[in-house]
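WP5 quarterly update. Target: Splicing factor U2af 38 kDa subunit. Source organism: Triparma laevis f. longispina. Length: 278 aa.
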Amino acid sequence: MVLPEIKDVGDMVVEVEAMGVVVTEEEVVTEVVAMVEETEEEEGGSAAEHLARVHGTEEDKVNCPFYFKIGACRHGDRCSRKHNVPAFSQTLILKHLYHNKYMGEEEEKISKIEISKEDRFLREEEFFDFYESIYLESCKFGEVEEIVVCDNIGDHMVGHIYVRFADEEDAADCLTDFKERFYDGRRIDVEFSPVTDFRESRCRQFDDNTCTRGGFCNFMHIKPVPRMFLESMRGEAGDARREQKRKAEEEREKRRAEESPSRSRSRSRSRSRSRSPP
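C-alpha cells (predicted):
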C-alpha cells in the first residue's frame, strides 16, 4: 500500500476531526500502523479517511466499539481497547441510578419468579414516578429529546439512564448541576456519553420479546414508556420552562429598575459638579 505523505500527526488529527470524529494523536498513529499492516494489498487511499471510517467499529483497533455504541462495556477497565469519555455530547449517562428489583439475582432465579398483577402495577407506578422526576429535573436545563432507562441487570449496565438533550450546552449545564446532586442517599454518578442514536444501542429482539439472553444481554433493554404519558410530561415540562423564563425575565426587569435610579442620580451629581463655578 502506498500511504500519502504525512508531515505532522497534528495535521492528521485536524483532518479527521473535520470529518466529525474526535481523536487523539496516539489513536492516529496506532490506526495508521494498523492500516499499513492489514491493508497492504490495497493501493492509494487516505489514512485520515480510513481512521474516520473505522472509528467505533469492530475494525477500530484503539477504541472499544461496544462503549462507543452502548456507552458501557462488560470488560470495564480490563477492556483491551479505550473507553474515551467525550469532552462534550448531547447525551448524559446517569450510572446505576435506577434501582432494578432483580439486581444481583441469577438468571435462572429470575426466570422462575412469578409477579402478581398487583405487584406489577405497583412497580410500574414506581417506575413512572421515577421517570417523571428525572424528566422534569432534566428539562429545567433545556429541551430533552429522549430519556432511556435500561432494564438490563448485568453489572456494567444495571440501572443506567441516558438523557439526550437537543443542545450540547444544555447537557453541559445539566451535567454540572447533577454532579452535585444526591438521589436515594447516593451521589449521582454522571458523565457525557458517546451514544446519540439509541437505534444502534437497543436490543431489537427484546423489543420483539424474543431475546434469549434476558437481562444479561449486552444491548439495551429499554423500559417502555407509554406515548400518552410522555406527551403529558412534555406539556408539563414546556409549561415549567415558560414559567421559568417568565420569572427570569421579571427578575432581570427588576434588577434593571433598581439600577436605573442609582445611575440617574450618579449622572445628576456628575452634571452638578461640572456646572459648579471653579
